[in-house]
Amino acid sequence: xxxxxxxxxxxxxxxxxxxxxxxxxxxxxxxxxxxxxxxxxxxxxxxxxxxxxxxxxxxxxxxxxxxxxxxxxxxxxxxxxxxxxxxxxxx
Length: 91
What we know:
By secondary structure, this protein is mainly alpha-helical.
């Protein structure tokens, strides 16, 4: 097995990485809906309703209020995923 240089044959390089990319995407596809669900759950909180009542824009509500509280679980999940990718083999 030889080392393939990206610049020499980019299509061959991408073809050889397709199945590893597909495998990793399928492993972590289950966590994406749960993150979206956590953000949706934040929209039902009282402080989000208060922010809407104050007249804040939806973008500001998303970034300043909903994502701030959801970011804790998102960063934790990201850290676990990086740890699994780097060090722990899947059995």
